[in-house]
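User: ok so my PI wants both of these folded by tonight, can you help

Assistant: No problem, let's get them done. Here's the first:
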Amino acid sequence: MEDLEKLITEVQMKNQMLQNIAMQKQTLMIQSKELEQALEEVEKSEGDLYKLVGPILMKTDKISIKKDLDEKKDDVDIKVKSMEKQEKKLSEHIKENQKVLQDMINTGGKSGE
Protein backbone atom coordinates (compact mmCIF):
# COMPACT_ATOMS: atom_id res chain seq x y z
CA MET A 1 0.00 0.00 0.00
CA GLU A 2 2.95 2.31 0.71
CA ASP A 3 4.23 1.80 -2.85
CA LEU A 4 0.81 2.73 -4.21
CA GLU A 5 0.69 5.98 -2.21
CA LYS A 6 4.25 6.81 -3.22
CA LEU A 7 3.44 6.28 -6.90
CA ILE A 8 0.26 8.36 -6.66
CA THR A 9 2.26 11.21 -5.12
CA GLU A 10 4.89 10.90 -7.84
CA VAL A 11 2.26 11.05 -10.59
CA GLN A 12 0.69 14.11 -8.97
CA MET A 13 4.06 15.86 -8.73
CA LYS A 14 4.88 15.09 -12.36
CA ASN A 15 1.47 16.34 -13.47
CA GLN A 16 2.15 19.61 -11.61
CA MET A 17 5.57 19.85 -13.27
CA LEU A 18 3.94 19.25 -16.65
CA GLN A 19 1.48 22.10 -16.02
CA ASN A 20 4.35 24.41 -15.04
CA ILE A 21 6.27 23.54 -18.19
CA ALA A 22 3.17 24.13 -20.32
CA MET A 23 2.70 27.58 -18.78
CA GLN A 24 6.36 28.50 -19.27
CA LYS A 25 6.23 27.26 -22.87
CA GLN A 26 3.12 29.32 -23.54
CA THR A 27 4.81 32.45 -22.16
CA LEU A 28 7.85 31.82 -24.36
CA MET A 29 5.68 31.27 -27.42
CA ILE A 30 3.98 34.62 -26.79
CA GLN A 31 7.39 36.28 -26.51
CA SER A 32 8.45 34.66 -29.79
CA LYS A 33 5.34 35.97 -31.54
CA GLU A 34 5.92 39.47 -30.14
CA LEU A 35 9.52 39.43 -31.36
CA GLU A 36 8.36 38.24 -34.77
CA GLN A 37 5.89 41.13 -34.96
CA ALA A 38 8.59 43.59 -33.87
CA LEU A 39 10.86 42.27 -36.64
CA GLU A 40 8.08 42.79 -39.18
CA GLU A 41 7.60 46.37 -38.00
CA VAL A 42 11.36 47.02 -38.22
CA GLU A 43 11.34 45.73 -41.81
CA LYS A 44 8.46 48.07 -42.72
CA SER A 45 9.98 51.13 -41.05
CA GLU A 46 11.69 53.78 -43.08
CA GLY A 47 12.33 56.45 -40.47
CA ASP A 48 14.50 56.62 -37.39
CA LEU A 49 14.46 53.68 -34.98
CA TYR A 50 14.91 53.92 -31.23
CA LYS A 51 15.79 51.32 -28.66
CA LEU A 52 15.23 51.34 -24.91
CA VAL A 53 18.48 50.96 -22.99
CA GLY A 54 17.54 50.98 -19.32
CA PRO A 55 15.58 54.20 -18.76
CA ILE A 56 17.08 55.85 -21.87
CA LEU A 57 15.72 55.83 -25.41
CA MET A 58 18.60 55.69 -27.91
CA LYS A 59 18.60 56.11 -31.66
CA THR A 60 19.80 52.98 -33.45
CA ASP A 61 20.14 51.67 -36.98
CA LYS A 62 17.88 49.13 -38.64
CA ILE A 63 20.59 46.47 -39.01
CA SER A 64 21.57 46.62 -35.34
CA ILE A 65 18.03 46.40 -34.00
CA LYS A 66 17.15 43.62 -36.46
CA LYS A 67 20.21 41.63 -35.37
CA ASP A 68 19.29 42.11 -31.70
CA LEU A 69 15.67 41.03 -32.24
CA ASP A 70 16.76 38.02 -34.33
CA GLU A 71 19.12 36.87 -31.55
CA LYS A 72 16.42 37.26 -28.90
CA LYS A 73 13.92 35.34 -31.04
CA ASP A 74 16.43 32.55 -31.66
CA ASP A 75 17.08 32.27 -27.90
CA VAL A 76 13.36 32.11 -27.14
CA ASP A 77 12.75 29.54 -29.88
CA ILE A 78 15.54 27.33 -28.50
CA LYS A 79 13.95 27.54 -25.05
CA VAL A 80 10.56 26.58 -26.53
CA LYS A 81 12.10 23.50 -28.17
CA SER A 82 13.74 22.57 -24.88
CA MET A 83 10.41 22.92 -23.07
CA GLU A 84 8.75 20.72 -25.70
CA LYS A 85 11.36 18.01 -25.13
CA GLN A 86 10.88 18.22 -21.35
CA GLU A 87 7.11 18.12 -21.82
CA LYS A 88 7.32 15.02 -24.03
CA LYS A 89 9.69 13.21 -21.66
CA LEU A 90 7.57 14.03 -18.62
CA SER A 91 4.39 12.94 -20.40
CA GLU A 92 5.99 9.59 -21.20
CA HIS A 93 7.02 9.14 -17.55
CA ILE A 94 3.51 9.99 -16.41
CA LYS A 95 1.99 7.45 -18.81
CA GLU A 96 4.40 4.77 -17.62
CA ASN A 97 3.64 5.54 -13.97
CA GLN A 98 -0.10 5.56 -14.62
CA LYS A 99 0.16 2.12 -16.22
CA VAL A 100 2.12 0.80 -13.22
CA LEU A 101 -0.41 2.46 -10.92
CA GLN A 102 -3.31 0.82 -12.73
CA ASP A 103 -1.56 -2.57 -12.55
CA MET A 104 -0.98 -2.09 -8.82
CA ILE A 105 -4.62 -1.19 -8.25
CA ASN A 106 -5.74 -4.23 -10.23
CA THR A 107 -3.46 -6.52 -8.18
CA GLY A 108 -4.50 -5.09 -4.83
CA GLY A 109 -1.77 -2.49 -4.28
CA LYS A 110 1.24 -4.77 -4.51
CA SER A 111 4.20 -3.79 -6.63
CA GLY A 112 4.79 -6.05 -9.63
CA GLU A 113 8.57 -5.86 -9.20
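One down. Here's the second:
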Amino acid sequence: MLAKLPIELKALFYSLLIALLLSVLFAALLCFTGLKGSALYAMAKITLVVSVFMGGCYVSKRYASKGLIHGFSMGVLFFTFLLILSLIVDPNYIDIKTLLTNLALCLVSGGAGGILGIGLSEL
Protein backbone atom coordinates (compact mmCIF):
# COMPACT_ATOMS: atom_id res chain seq x y z
CA MET A 1 0.00 0.00 0.00
CA LEU A 2 2.75 2.49 0.91
CA ALA A 3 4.82 1.60 -2.15
CA LYS A 4 2.75 3.75 -4.52
CA LEU A 5 2.43 6.83 -2.33
CA PRO A 6 4.61 9.91 -2.89
CA ILE A 7 7.68 10.16 -0.67
CA GLU A 8 6.25 13.10 1.27
CA LEU A 9 3.12 11.17 2.25
CA LYS A 10 5.22 8.17 3.29
CA ALA A 11 7.33 10.48 5.42
CA LEU A 12 4.18 11.99 6.95
CA PHE A 13 2.89 8.50 7.74
CA TYR A 14 6.20 7.54 9.38
CA SER A 15 6.26 10.81 11.32
CA LEU A 16 2.76 10.22 12.61
CA LEU A 17 3.68 6.67 13.57
CA ILE A 18 6.71 7.92 15.50
CA ALA A 19 4.54 10.57 17.19
CA LEU A 20 2.03 7.90 18.19
CA LEU A 21 4.74 5.64 19.61
CA LEU A 22 6.34 8.49 21.55
CA SER A 23 2.93 9.53 22.88
CA VAL A 24 2.28 6.01 24.16
CA LEU A 25 5.76 5.91 25.71
CA PHE A 26 5.29 9.26 27.45
CA ALA A 27 1.80 8.27 28.62
CA ALA A 28 3.27 5.13 30.19
CA LEU A 29 5.96 7.23 31.86
CA LEU A 30 3.33 9.55 33.30
CA CYS A 31 1.22 6.66 34.57
CA PHE A 32 3.89 4.42 36.03
CA THR A 33 6.48 6.88 37.33
CA GLY A 34 6.42 9.85 39.65
CA LEU A 35 6.36 12.39 36.82
CA LYS A 36 3.92 15.22 37.28
CA GLY A 37 1.39 16.37 34.72
CA SER A 38 3.37 19.56 34.30
CA ALA A 39 5.89 17.57 32.22
CA LEU A 40 3.21 16.98 29.60
CA TYR A 41 3.95 20.22 27.71
CA ALA A 42 7.63 19.34 27.34
CA MET A 43 6.77 15.80 26.30
CA ALA A 44 4.42 17.08 23.62
CA LYS A 45 7.10 19.38 22.22
CA ILE A 46 9.70 16.59 22.26
CA THR A 47 7.26 14.35 20.42
CA LEU A 48 6.65 17.04 17.81
CA VAL A 49 10.34 17.78 17.27
CA VAL A 50 11.48 14.14 17.09
CA SER A 51 8.69 13.04 14.75
CA VAL A 52 9.14 15.95 12.31
CA PHE A 53 12.93 15.54 12.47
CA MET A 54 12.65 11.87 11.52
CA GLY A 55 10.20 12.68 8.73
CA GLY A 56 12.51 15.34 7.32
CA CYS A 57 15.41 12.92 7.53
CA TYR A 58 13.42 10.22 5.71
CA VAL A 59 12.22 12.45 2.88
CA SER A 60 15.59 14.04 2.17
CA LYS A 61 17.37 10.69 2.35
CA ARG A 62 15.01 9.38 -0.33
CA TYR A 63 15.46 12.40 -2.59
CA ALA A 64 19.22 12.69 -1.84
CA SER A 65 19.23 16.40 -2.70
CA LYS A 66 17.91 19.73 -1.39
CA GLY A 67 17.69 18.45 2.16
CA LEU A 68 16.81 21.76 3.78
CA ILE A 69 13.97 22.42 1.32
CA HIS A 70 12.57 18.89 1.63
CA GLY A 71 12.90 19.05 5.41
CA PHE A 72 11.05 22.37 5.51
CA SER A 73 8.32 20.92 3.29
CA MET A 74 7.99 17.98 5.67
CA GLY A 75 7.67 20.42 8.59
CA VAL A 76 4.98 22.39 6.78
CA LEU A 77 3.13 19.21 5.84
CA PHE A 78 3.17 17.94 9.44
CA PHE A 79 2.14 21.36 10.77
CA THR A 80 -0.73 21.54 8.27
CA PHE A 81 -1.91 18.10 9.34
CA LEU A 82 -1.82 19.14 13.00
CA LEU A 83 -3.65 22.37 12.26
CA ILE A 84 -6.43 20.60 10.37
CA LEU A 85 -6.73 18.01 13.14
CA SER A 86 -6.86 20.76 15.77
CA LEU A 87 -9.57 22.61 13.85
CA ILE A 88 -11.63 19.43 13.66
CA VAL A 89 -11.23 18.47 17.33
CA ASP A 90 -11.53 21.85 19.08
CA PRO A 91 -11.18 25.09 17.09
CA ASN A 92 -11.61 27.21 20.25
CA TYR A 93 -8.37 25.90 21.75
CA ILE A 94 -6.08 27.32 19.05
CA ASP A 95 -4.17 30.49 19.91
CA ILE A 96 -1.62 32.38 17.83
CA LYS A 97 1.32 31.85 20.22
CA THR A 98 0.97 28.07 20.19
CA LEU A 99 0.39 28.11 16.45
CA LEU A 100 3.57 30.08 15.74
CA THR A 101 5.61 28.05 18.24
CA ASN A 102 4.55 24.79 16.63
CA LEU A 103 5.23 26.16 13.14
CA ALA A 104 8.73 27.25 14.17
CA LEU A 105 9.43 23.89 15.80
CA CYS A 106 8.20 22.03 12.72
CA LEU A 107 10.31 24.14 10.36
CA VAL A 108 13.49 23.95 12.41
CA SER A 109 13.27 20.25 13.20
CA GLY A 110 12.21 19.36 9.65
CA GLY A 111 15.06 21.42 8.21
CA ALA A 112 17.58 19.85 10.58
CA GLY A 113 16.28 16.38 9.72
CA GLY A 114 16.54 17.24 6.04
CA ILE A 115 20.17 18.26 6.40
CA LEU A 116 20.98 15.04 8.28
CA GLY A 117 19.08 13.01 5.69
CA ILE A 118 21.37 14.26 2.94
CA GLY A 119 24.36 13.02 4.93
CA LEU A 120 22.69 9.65 5.43
CA SER A 121 21.82 9.31 1.74
CA GLU A 122 25.52 9.08 0.90
CA LEU A 123 26.06 6.05 3.19
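The chain has one domain: 8-121. The mean pLDDT is 92. Good luck tonight!
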